[in-house]
Design brief:
With 324 residues, the chain is an alpha/beta fold. It has eleven helices and eleven strands. Helix 8 links the parallel strand 9 and strand 10. The longest helix is centred in the middle third of the chain and has 17 residues. The mean pLDDT is 97.
Length: 324
């Protein structure tokens, strides 16, 4: 029987509710900390909770927190945010991307890169499985998704090993998968590896689809059955919202509305409303972007309200479900 693994326990998929499918509610990335990049330090439970309150007031009920071990995950802090904020949080097992691997491996006297290099695929997979089934960060809090990632048009040897290990963890546990794509590159190449390893792409959600707003790439990815996360909302420095919405509606027109999920990928203090920087905040997507999307979808001849329900409720409930 399918279930979703949250930090407060396993639930039926129908219990998940209105969900952001990619965000970061608490993380202290070691590399950015060492380089003194304060904006990446999402390190205040109280500040995050103030944003969570706005998310909940806008109708939000759950968040997939995509913070892996190499990006400064803290399962205990996320659990506290979940309990105090009254939302469900799905946490991340596995690894993010190679640029973060120079950081210290928690619980080991070496860097993450050295830890990965010293182990075979099976050993890395066993680590990911343990995070999914036993606990993370010295706790009994379990990850609900296995993650892997690739660089900008590159896949390092360590990234490939972590990717294969995450796929193996899925084969062993039935967990859902999530992948990072740097600026939306290597989407199709990731899918080639997933299929070559005998994994059903419908068990994977690919992040940052909108960083490369290429309708042909999106369509080819969608044809595999993969879930596609549009998580660049509000980042108009990359492209206006109209480009993102147009990409989504092209996929809907092609019949792929059941594969689209949405998140904010909030990972900077300047993006939160309550870290003293005055950002748009965690409530922005539901409060402001959703009405705009529904209006534009309606103008294009679609049922905007029905699409919103799919993107934020029905699709995440399937994307984050564990299979038998």
């Amino acid at each position: 029987m399918a279930f979703i693994r949250t930090l407060t326990g396993d639930i039926a998929p129908a219990e998940l509710g209105r969900t952001y499918s990619h965000d970061h509610l608490y993380c202290i990335p070691q590399r950015w900390q060492e380089e003194g990049i304060e904006d990446f330090m999402i390190d205040s439970v109280d500040s995050t909770l103030a944003d969570v309150a706005e998310f909940a007031a806008a109708g939000g009920e759950a968040v997939y927190d995509a913070t892996a071990i190499d990006y400064g995950r803290d399962a205990a802090k996320l659990h506290e945010i979940s309990v105090r904020g009254g939302i469900r949080i799905i946490a991340t097992a596995g690894f993010n991307k190679g640029v973060m691997f120079p950081g210290q491996m928690p619980g080991a006297d070496c860097t993450i890169q050295q830890w990965i290099d010293a182990r075979g695929r099976a050993e890395v997979a066993a680590h990911v499985v343990a995070e999914l089934t036993e606990g993370m960060d010295g706790t009994d809090l379990k990850g609900g998704v296995a993650k892997f990632g690739t660089g900008y048009n590159t896949i390092s040897e360590a990234e490939r090993k972590c990717m294969l290990a995450a796929l193996d963890a899925h084969k062993q546990t039935g967990c859902p998968l999530h992948s990072h794509t740097e600026l939306g590159t290597l989407i199709l190449e990731q899918l080639d590896i997933v299929r070559a390893e005998g994994v059903d792409p419908s068990r994977l959600t690919i992040a940052h689809m909108d960083r490369n707003p290429d309708p042909w790439v999106h369509r080819k990815a969608a044809e595999t059955g993969v879930f596609m996360c549009f998580d660049g909302i509000s980042r108009v420095k990359y492209h206006p919202e109209s480009v993102l919405i147009d990409c989504i509606l092209k996929l809907v027109e092609a019949g792929h509305e059941d594969q689209i999920v949405v998140g904010g990928d909030i990972a900077r203090r300047t993006m939160f409303a309550h870290y003293g920087k005055g950002g748009l905040g965690l409530g922005y997507i539901l409060r402001s972007w959703v009405p705009r999307f529904a209006e534009e979808a309606g103008e294009a001849g679609f049922d905007g309200a029905a699409l919103v329900e799919k993107f934020f409720v029905a699709n995440p409930a399937r994307a984050f479900s564990w299979s038998e």
